[in-house]
């Protein structure tokens, strides 16, 4: 049975996950959800109901920006990309996460991968 | 493919979003769900299982709460009391952008709506320009409300202002010296024809005699040079200076700046031009203005021999007084003061002033003289008519919007589901309609401008520069703008209210195709259409009645022949001729012209046809010496030999003037039968004696002729006295020529012959009899043309509206029609079905229209000639025209309905 990530964990890390996936490449909502699912090996899943509130919140904060694009042979989709402010936030979040994960590892005696 | 949108909508209820945001979210989420669904299907789930799974993942609590928070970037303080929803202005901008996008998305609808309204608005802008230029702001003078005009009238008539007369110069002077109410008191004469020679060619021009303070009283400033100095009207004959009118300066002098100081000859007397009047000022008689102004002390140089003593003779009426009220003086005070002044003049100079009283009127009222009522009335009628045209255009566009509303119910429902309130929706929809009307306003203004140019070009060319200009300025623009915005609100409000009443759950459940089945939805549309038909019928009937009336007017017999008649106006006195030379000239013209080929007879007369000069105060033998207040008046015409035969006026009794009626012999006159019957009823008028107001001798009646029209076409017969030229010299006469063929053929020959007699003589106002009648009916013809244009515009708009609604309805009913045909209905049945639907509305509207037209016609009947207000001929003609057009508008959609292929219709929908 795959480990279902704890809801609180997910909330704390969700912004970081989305921002990271948008680093360097614009993606649409469904693609983001798919990638999180794939790369976490199914342990972290975002449904539309949880992903979009997050995307809209990030967009409102001007960390990401959505734009409608129509690619050949595809439906019209809204692609999100990182803004400059988003890039700074991502760097900061990464640093915080590393600090946090390191602290947790040191206390819990978990060996970092 | 599952309908994700309605699934999402149901879960998003309660979030208050802008329409744009809403549809974006809807698109994005449904696309996501579809991807997920496809993925699940691809992994081997059945469609229904996949759908269940996707739906199970939908819990939008977070999303709704996320969408409802106005997020402020973290780390920033949250402003206290910040509104949760948008501001009025930002909402408005948003609505505006949305409206622009919606219109871009349906260019066909936008084009039809904008064009339809633009026609209506353009008609209103044009008519408003006319009303503004002629009635609201006829005179570009300073503070017009403090200006008054003074005239006299016979006391008996003071109450009805029937016959306003001019003041004499001595009376004017006395009034000016005795009254206190005025800050400034000036006077001007009526425009008088003069001969102007600026280079070589003589021309006819119109001149007004004015006091030196005339322009200052009106608060005007010269466009060039200066106006008169105070001492330039002090000594008779000493100031030969003239101020040019702006149009005359532009047209006759090419707008050259060096015109000031230039010398011209007026009636062969040298004058110096000292200035040019302001641009839009064409005198105070707003419809017809002079080309130049001259100090009144130069009167002798311009007036006829009978009026030579005008500067000193209290019985010669010459000017209208113009005065500016002193600050703080009311109109009533002025009237009271004038009453006293007029009584004292009456006492001091009973010979000339008894029975007369002064009439004070606001200048705006005085502007058109007696024609004002007519001008006001015609303008109001036109305003009402273009108002109806605009309402028809509005209801047309309202109908289009209603039809569109049916198609937009889904969209509206989505917005309501997402939490848009009704007021918010109405505002959004009204923003859309006002956007449409705004563009219509711009286009309408251009249409109005074009219309006014067209109207201006219809003015008779000979007088164009003397006639009032239509001024299209900021006022007209502002008016058009307000009308456009109001229009947008009027045609937008019903559809907006109706559309926003959409029930969310009902629409979301129902598929688009059912919208057309609810035919009850179109009842408002039907009423609007019926009203359009009724309105356009009324306009068409009015136009037809007036057209019929003017056709009748053309059949009026003026009492003389017009077909073979030509007239030439000649003023030998203005070319410096003295009496012997003028008499010699009259004789010479008679001899030389009668030898021109194609001419059967000719004569001289002082009056132009339909411009008869009326004189008051005739004394008749056998009539009681009357009080001045009910003096006898009659048209007086000085004529030469053969006048009656040239015009084709027949004698009832007595004889024509002859060679023997000359200076020294018995003074004679010919009267018309109306005069004879009125003053010598059942007696023989021949041999009776009469005396003209300014005549010294009593005249013996030697002949009685049939009455004809002297002042207006179709007038009721009025008394007229003819006196022989040979006993009553006049230095300006009109040559009447009767031709053997069409009068146009002899015009050039006669003009050349006169030119050969004296090249320095101005020959003006060459007209044929037919043209005289044409000009008399000119206003009427213009009015009829306008009425017809607006009538057909209304019918056109109503038919386009009818066609649009029918075509839309057929489109909506394709499925139903398909079913009917599949069940065995044939083409004729379907054809009849649709035709009946349309024609029911048309006939309903027609019935209402006929009723209204009968009522309106009755109200208009006193303005008609020879036609009743309930003119069945016009009514039937207009109804048939409308019916025919409506039939075509319904036939086309009916035909397309009958061609519906049941297979295609059922499959497509």
What's the N-to-C terminus distance of chain A?
Answer: 22 Å
CATH class of chain A: Mainly Alpha
Number of strands of chain B: 23
Number of helices of chain B: 28
Multimeric organization: heterodimer
Order of helices and strands of chain A: HEHHEEH
- The structure class of chain A reads alpha+beta
How do the strands line up in the largest sheet of chain A?
1-3-2
**Can you identify the CATH superfamily of chain A?**
Winged helix-like DNA-binding domain superfamily/Winged helix DNA-binding domain
Number of domains of chain B: 4
User: From the helix content, strand content and strand pairing of chain B, which structural class follows?
Assistant: alpha+beta
Describe the overall structure.
- The complex is a heterodimer of chains A (113) and B (909).
- Mean pLDDT of chain A is 82; it is low at 1-5.
- With 113 residues, chain A is an alpha+beta fold.
- Chain A has a three-stranded antiparallel sheet with strand order 1-3-2.
- Helix content of chain A is 57%, strand content 14%.
- In chain A, strand 2 (64-70) and strand 3 form a beta hairpin.
- The radius of gyration of chain A is 15 Å and the shape is globular.
- Chain A has a single domain, classed as Orthogonal Bundle (Arc Repressor Mutant, subunit A).
- Chain A is built from four helices and three strands, in the order αβααββα.
- In chain B, the strands form four sheets. Chain B has a six-stranded mixed barrel with strand order 4-5-10-7-9-8.
- Chain B is α+β, with helices and mostly antiparallel strands and 909 residues long.
- Chain B starts with a helix and ends with a helix.
- Chain B has 28 helices and 23 strands.
- Chain B folds into four domains: 4-75, no CATH class; 144-367, no CATH class; 373-554 and 778-908, no CATH class; 565-769, no CATH class.
- Classes of the chains: A alpha+beta (113), B alpha+beta (909).
- Chain A binds chain B through residues 28-30, 33, 47-53, 56-57, 60-62, 68, 75-78, and chain B through 24-25, 27-29, 31-36, 57-63, 65-67, 71, 73-74.
């Amino acid at each position: 049975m795959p480990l279902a990530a704890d809801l609180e964990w997910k909330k704390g890390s969700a912004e970081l996950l989305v921002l990271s996936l948008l680093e360097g490449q614009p993606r649409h909502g469904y693609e983001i959800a798919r990638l999180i699912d794939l790369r976490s090996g199914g342990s972290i899943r975002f449904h539309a109901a949880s992903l979009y509130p997050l995307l809209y919140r990030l967009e409102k904060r001007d960390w990401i920006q959505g734009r409608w694009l129509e690619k050949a042979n595809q439906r019209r989709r809204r692609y999100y990309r990182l803004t400059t402010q988003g890039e700074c936030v991502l760097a900061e979040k990464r640093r915080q996460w590393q600090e946090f994960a390191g602290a947790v590892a040191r206390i819990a005696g978990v060996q970092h991968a | 493919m599952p309908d994700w949108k309605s699934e999402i909508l149901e879960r998003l209820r309660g979030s208050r979003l802008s329409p744009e945001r809403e549809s974006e979210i809807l698109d994005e989420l449904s696309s996501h769900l579809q991807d997920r669904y496809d993925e699940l299907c691809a992994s081997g789930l059945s469609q229904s299982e996949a759908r269940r799974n996707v739906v199970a993942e939908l819990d939008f609590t977070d999303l709704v709460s996320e969408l409802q928070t106005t997020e402020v970037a973290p780390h920033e303080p949250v402003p206290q009391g910040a509104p949760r929803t948008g501001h009025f202005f930002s909402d408005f901008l948003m609505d505006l952008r949305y409206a622009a996008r919606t219109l871009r998305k349906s260019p066909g609808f936008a084009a039809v709506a904008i064009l339809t309204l633009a026609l209506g608005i353009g008609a209103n802008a044009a008519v408003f320009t006319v009303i503004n230029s002629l009635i609201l702001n006829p005179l570009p003078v300073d503070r017009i409300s403090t200006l008054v005009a003074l005239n006299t009238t016979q006391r008996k008539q003071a109450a009805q202002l029937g016959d306003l007369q001019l003041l004499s110069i001595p009376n004017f002077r006395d009034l000016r010296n005795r009254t206190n109410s005025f800050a400034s008191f000036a006077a001007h004469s009526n425009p008088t024809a003069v001969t102007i020679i600026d280079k070589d060619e003589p021309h006819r021009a119109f001149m007004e005699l004015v006091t030196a303070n005339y322009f200052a009283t009106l608060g005007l400033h010269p466009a060039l040079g200066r106006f008169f100095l105070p001492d330039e009207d002090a000594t008779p004959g000493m100031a030969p200076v003239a101020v040019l009118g702006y149009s005359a300066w532009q047209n006759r002098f090419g707008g050259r700046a060096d015109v000031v100081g230039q010398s011209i000859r007026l009636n062969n007397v040298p004058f110096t031009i000292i200035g040019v009047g302001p641009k839009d000022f064409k005198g105070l008689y707003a419809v017809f203005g002079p080309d130049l102004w001259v100090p009144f002390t130069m009167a002798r140089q311009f007036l006829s021999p009978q009026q030579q003593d005008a500067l000193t003779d209290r019985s010669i009426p010459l000017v209208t007084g113009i005065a500016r009220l002193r600050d703080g003086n009311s109109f009533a005070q002025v009237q009271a003061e004038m009453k006293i002044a007029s009584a004292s003049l009456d006492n001091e100079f009973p010979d000339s002033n008894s029975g007369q009283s002064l009439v004070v009127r606001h200048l705006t009222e005085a502007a058109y003289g007696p024609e004002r009522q007519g001008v006001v009335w015609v303008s109001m009628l036109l305003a009402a008519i273009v108002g109806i045209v605009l309402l028809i255009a509005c209801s047309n566009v309202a109908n289009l919007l209603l039809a569109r509303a049916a198609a937009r119910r889904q969209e509206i429902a989505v917005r309501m589901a997402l939490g848009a309130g009704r007021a918010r929706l109405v505002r959004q929809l009204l923003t859309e309609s006002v956007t449409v009307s705004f563009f219509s306003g711009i286009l309408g203004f251009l249409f109005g401008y074009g219309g006014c140019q067209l109207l201006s070009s219809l003015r008779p060319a000979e007088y164009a520069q003397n006639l009032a200009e239509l001024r299209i300025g900021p006022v007209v623009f502002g008016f058009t703008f307000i009308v456009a915005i109001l229009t947008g609100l009027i045609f937008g409000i019903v559809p907006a209210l109706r559309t926003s009443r959409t029930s969310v759950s009902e629409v979301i459940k129902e598929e688009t195709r059912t919208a057309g089945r609810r035919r009850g939805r179109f009842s408002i549309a039907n009423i609007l259409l019926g009203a359009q038909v009724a309105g356009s019928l009324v306009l068409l009937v009015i136009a037809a009645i007036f057209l019929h009336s003017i056709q009748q007017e053309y059949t009026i017999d003026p009492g003389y022949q017009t077909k073979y008649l030509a007239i030439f106006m000649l003023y030998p006195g203005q070319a410096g001729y003295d009496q012997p030379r003028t008499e010699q000239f009259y004789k010479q013209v008679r001899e030389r012209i009668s030898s021109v080929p194609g001419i059967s007879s000719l004569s001289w007369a002082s009056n132009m046809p339909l411009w008869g000069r009326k004189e008051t105060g005739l004394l008749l033998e056998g009539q009681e010496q009357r009080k001045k207040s009910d003096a006898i008046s009659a048209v007086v015409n000085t004529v030469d030999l053969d006048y009656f035969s040239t015009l084709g006026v027949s004698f009832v009794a007595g004889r024509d003037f002859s060679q023997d009626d000359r200076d020294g012999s018995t003074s004679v006159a010919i009267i018309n039968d109306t005069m004879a019957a009125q003053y010598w009823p059942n007696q023989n008028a021949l041999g009776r004696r009469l005396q003209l107001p300014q005549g010294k001798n009593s005249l013996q009646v030697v002949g009685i002729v049939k009455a004809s029209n002297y002042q207006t076409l179709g007038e009721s017969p009025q008394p007229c006295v003819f006196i022989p030229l040979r006993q009553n010299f006049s230095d300006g006469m009109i040559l009447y020529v009767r031709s053997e063929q069409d009068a146009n053929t002899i015009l050039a020959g006669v003009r050349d012959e006169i030119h050969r007699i004296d090249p320095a003589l101005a020959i003006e106002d060459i007209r044929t009899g037919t043209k005289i009648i044409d000009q008399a009916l000119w206003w009427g013809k213009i009015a009829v043309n306008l009425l017809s244009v607006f009538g057909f515009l209304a019918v056109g708009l109503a038919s386009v509206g009818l066609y649009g609604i029918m075509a839309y309805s057929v489109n909506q009913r394709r499925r139903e029609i398909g079913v009917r045909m599949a069940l065995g209905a044939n083409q004729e049945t379907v054809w009849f079905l649709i035709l009946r639907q349309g024609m029911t509305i048309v006939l309903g509207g027609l019935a209402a229209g006929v009723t209204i037209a009968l009522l309106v016609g009755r109200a208009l009947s006193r303005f008609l000639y020879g036609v009743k207000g309930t003119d069945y001929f016009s009514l039937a003609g207009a109804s048939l025209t409308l019916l025919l057009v409506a039939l075509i508008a319904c036939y086309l959609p009916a035909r397309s309905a009958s061609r519906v292929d049941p297979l295609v219709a059922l499959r497509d929908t």
